[in-house]
Amino acid sequence: MSLDKSAVRTIADLARIRVPEDDLDHLAGELSNILTFIEQLSAVDTDGVAPMTSVAAVGLPMRADVVNDGGIAEAVLANAPDKAEGFFSVPKVVE
Amino acid sequence: MSKLTSLTIAEARDGLSKGEFTALDLTESHIKAIDAGRGLNAFITETPELALEKAKESDARRRAGTVGALEGIPLGIKDLFCTKGVRTTAASHILDTFIPQYESTVSANLANAGSVSMGKLNLDEFAMGSANITSYFGPVINPWKRRSDPSVQLVPGGSSGGSAAAVAAGLVMGATGTDTGGSIRQPASFCGIVGIKPTYGRCSRWGIVAFASSLDQAGPMARTVRDCAIMLGSMVGHDPKDSTSAPVAVPNFESALTGDIRGLKVGIPKEYRPDGLSPEIQAVWDRGVAWLKDAGATPVEISLPATKYALATYYIIAPAECSSNLARYDGVRFGLRVEGKSLDEMYANTRAEGFGAEVKRRILIGTYVLSHGYYDAYYIKAQKVRRLIADDFANAFKTVDVILTPTAPSAAFALGEKIDDPVTMWLNDIFTIPTSMAGLPGLSLPAGLDGEGLPLGLQVIGRPFDEETVLKVAEVMEKASGFSTRPKGV
Amino acid sequence: MGYLLQGDTGDWEVVIGLEVHAQVISNSKLFSGASTVFGGEPNDQVSFVDAGFPGMLPVINARCVEQAVRTGLGLNAKINLTSVFARKNYFYADLPQGYQISQYELPIVGEGVLTIDMAEGSKAVGIERLHLEQDAGKSLHDQHPSKSYIDLNRSGVALMEIVSKPDMRSPEEAGLYIAKLRSILRYLETCDGNMQEGSLRCDANVSVRPVGSTELRTRCEIKNVNSIRFVQQAIEYEARRHIEVYESGGTIHQETRLFDSVKGETRSMRSKEHAHDYRYFPDPDLLPLTLDPKMVETIKQSLPELPDEKKQRFIAEYGLSAYDAGVLVAEKASADFFEAVAKGRDHKLASNWVSGDFFAALNASGKTFDAPPVSAKNLGELIDLISDGTLSGRLAKDVFALMLESGKSPSALVEEKGLRQVTDTGAIEAAIDQVIAANPDKVADVMAGKDKLIGWFVGQVMKSTQGKANPAMLNELLAKRFQK
């Protein structure tokens, strides 16, 4: 599978990673190689095989509906690069 | 290496209980060793002051009659485990200022067992790599050197390269690692130490920076099988904060080391002998089989047909999960923020500058294989092949009790070698990845040296939750191998 | 014929589907133990899990699962004993993980049905599915000139996303659907349905087609409308917009829009311009959810009588009109109030008094059924006093007004104020005599043919008896007196 510059731009955009224009070609090449490698799976016969999303054999454990967390605003904000009045702040978003 | 830093955990435990030395003595000697061994770049954050404090507390506890399973033992913590109040970076620029306000379950378990943390160990960025060369804090150097040219710096393997190097060089007595596709086993092999990735679900993942959620597992790395068994006993246990944590009892792993493996069946998978398998590795493998036969076990040839697809399967599933797990690194609530004119620009700039090349590659591949139009062809397909891989093992375990394979296709290579093509680098994990895909326990132990005097490891794979048999078999082999050499100068 | 919009080229039909996000009533969040209470200090109800810190993992809240099952059963929907949580991946400041834990291919609840009652009759609106998902945090864009502020208190609160089939054909139907759904959720106590606080939010999917066509044209989604009225306005505006575009030869592109309630218009959401590829995949931190059929059955047995059932029963048992029954059952509290008043009493009286005077007083007082202006017990007693002849209807109104003022029981007030109605013919005759004697000219007028003046006499006698004269008797006796 071959990826071109514009495909890489789209993927990078979805992943919110800025890729400098100059790097697009090289990255496209690297990613194309990787895709070619992983494409070998298309040759495997998987008819009737159920996908395996977890190796854990247990069912989903549930917890009781009690409030036993939160109330730690200071700790939650402790690592924030920018904050004000108890909020996280980010560049303004215009809807 | 001073006398104290060359002890095993078991020996230190004994010496401490006999009063031959104190936890403070142990910690002080390891601080000196870390000082002398800084050239290996095994640590990202050293915490000597904290360690001395903890060592004193340990001695006080011992005097008061409380002795934990790892009381006073100096350990290193891979910098992927969140440690409260101590910087945790995942070896990434994007987290290089992050100070967690919480402690991971596994590192808390080890602290509760009385151990003393010497600091945070270096790794490949976000646990992605097989040589510890992608760390923002620089590569880790393997304490082992080639006989022919000791000036060449060798890689320790990865991603838990700092852990492996620190243990091998005597900077710590044991270390935590994490293993997603081989990141405990392969560096253990490259550095001549023992490392075990337990069954998926044995150790809690809570507080460990997530890479690939369905594969990540924490595990111990130490110089002997017994030491790993001791550490494992304190690391494992059901954690209600982790929905994938297995609700199973914790056996006494140390007491499983009976030395008796008579009647055990050992599977030798024919697919692990690809064309071009180095003759030295083949020889070590054959020797391993011989040791087991001598001990009364029976080798059985088995077939794991889906083996050859494991690497491709892994490199679809792991990147897919990581692309989602790493979306939270966006500069809003913690870590690096690079400004931008808009929110999206801030995200794009932060992540471009904060992530290294390998991490970015994997995020992009992961994003692609999950994207519209490709999900079925890649992700779903890979999850189906994964089931085939798991079924292969389940089938094999109908006739054998453990499986024996080489751990890595080579000994440690040089820094600067093998870096041109990501895929070539990925081949380092070719023997360890299938075990991860099936969630099985896998251990690597040093079984011999190659022509350059570099360690070669063998891998023992067991049934789900049968770490006991894996450890037992490994100890038998460890005794038979007589492997006790240390890297030169250590 | 139904709701049709007239365009230049002909009549158009509107096709509407609604996605309602209902916040689940629970103490803690869907995947963390932080509190769900509305209106706390910013970031004070946030766990490290909700804030998406490194290494954090979700653990599901059993009660939220039960609430979703309860809601599904209340919508006559299929409960899927196995369901899967999936990650919906996208970037936004109020989404700390960079993905929302939701459900995609296998939701906890499948197809169901909701009935709406219109003047022309009932209509069944199909429910496509219901799934559980995390709510996002809140962004404030107006606190600072160049920054947006983020509060994660709401991040991780459990939501039920209820998706209807595109079966609605008018803003009216859409409004009725939301009202009915809200009513059911409140009956089940799985969501409080408070649209102003945002515990019930509605996204409307709107498309149009020429009358007679069965195709489904491109739809636009209008997001996060927080009142029924606005939903209706938004649908109408959007439908007309589509028609205008089609009739001028243009095409409608699938997009997400916001409703500007000030201007009464919808507009495109700039931030949603990115092609949305959510890259759904099963969340590897969560295993498939498997429900015990016994648990589902237990919940089913514990369901309260729901509005539709209750309405039918009120019509049958209490002889109420469909309209009156519908009004009373809209809220469980009002239905329960009515029944407490009506049981064992005259149904017509009960219905009139509850629907009439009581509801008027309730609305005027601004109170709710938690602390009504008049208790069901007292209102029932008032009706008893009418039924046993102690009070006339007229007197009862006076007593009711006093009850509102004082909070006292009607029997206490009747005693206190001596408000028994007078049914003794002798007493009424005597009162009539007095008025007749005092107004000979008016008597003459009545005798001369001005029958309407009899009403004046009725008023005067009423006044002189402090309103206590039994009206029926009074009318009868007066009529006799003026008989020629």
Compact description:
The complex is a heterotrimer of chains A (95), B (490) and C (484). Chain A has helices at residues 5-14, 24-38, 73-77, and strands spanning 62-63, 83-84, 87-91.
Describe the protein's architecture and organization.
The complex is a heterotrimer of chains A (95), B (490) and C (484). With 95 residues, chain A is α+β, with helices and mostly antiparallel strands. Chain A has helices at residues 5-14, 24-38, 73-77, and strands spanning 62-63, 83-84, 87-91. Chain A has a domain at 5-42. Chain A is 32% helix and 9% strand. Chain A has a two-stranded antiparallel sheet with strand order 2-3. In chain A, helix 1 crosses helix 2. The radius of gyration of chain A is 22 Å and the shape is flat. Chain A starts with a helix and ends with a strand. Chain B is of the alpha/beta class. Chain B has a single domain (3-263, 400-481), classed as Amidase signature (AS) domain (Amidase signature (AS) enzymes, Alpha-Beta Complex), CATH 3.90.1300.10. In chain B, strands 1-3-2-4-6-5-10-11-9-7-8 form an 11-stranded mixed sheet, sandwiched between helices. The relative contact order of chain B is 0.14. Chain C has 484 residues and is α+β, with helices and mostly antiparallel strands. Chain C folds into 3 domains: 5-299, no CATH class; 305-417, no CATH class; 425-481, Arc Repressor Mutant, subunit A (Orthogonal Bundle). In chain C, 39% of the residues lie in helices and 20% in strands. Chain C has helices at 62-74, 171-188, 228-247, 293-301, 307-318, 322-329, 332-342, 347-365, 376-387, 393-406, 410-417, 425-438, 440-447, 454-464, 471-481, and strands at 4-6, 11-23, 60-61, 82-83, 85-89, 99-103, 112-118, 121-134, 138-140, 147-151, 158-164, 200-210, 220-225, 256-260, 265-268, 281-282, 289-290. In chain C, strands 1, 2, 7, 8, 11, 12, 13, 14 and 15 form a 9-stranded mixed sheet that branches. Chain C has a 3-stranded antiparallel sheet with strand order 6-5-16, with no helix packed on it. A two-stranded antiparallel ribbon of chain C has the order 4-17. The two termini of chain C are 58 Å apart. The model of chain C has no long low-confidence stretch (mean pLDDT 92). Chains A and B meet through helix 1, helix 2 and strand 3 of A and helix 9, helix 10, helix 11 and helix 12 of B. Strand 1 of chain A pairs parallel with strand 3 of chain C.
